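for the writeup, i need someone to sanity check this before i put it in the appendix. the sequnce is what the collaborator sent (i think, or maybe the updated version? ugh). structure was predicted straight from it, no edits. if anything looks off just tell me and ill rerun, i have time this weekend
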Amino acid sequence: MTGTRDEGERDEGHERPPGVGDTTVEALGALTEALESVERARGRLYDFHQLTGGADLTLDRAVELLRTAGHASHADLVEREILGRNVIPGCWTYQIVEAYDATYYRPFVEVEARVRRELVAGRQHLYEAEMKEARRTHGHPDHTAGP
């Protein structure tokens, strides 16, 4: 079949280096899985940041409409108590994102990469690649080892 890999070919960029044991591959899989969860949490933190910021900007319209409707004291209340308010003491959401990135996210990414670099020459997704190899149907054009 033209354009497909022969069933004997392997995805060399995802093969474990010589001497690397099953437990190491499993440990790296768990480390990467944890990092993937952190990536998702970081995305939700950005959701929180953008949703909260969007809500704060929408308050401008609410304050304007309250004033237009003759509710100046209520407009003042919203403007004074909520508009531009810190979401936690001393911080807007962008400061929470920055602190998370500096304190947790970047160090996690760096440590995960270092461990992979030192143990398996930086190769990624070895656990998944081996699972793919074990589950694919050799010779099937939609089950090739790699692109």
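The CA atoms of residues 60 and 83 lie 8 Å apart. Residues 1-6 have pLDDT under 50 and may be disordered.
thx in advance!!
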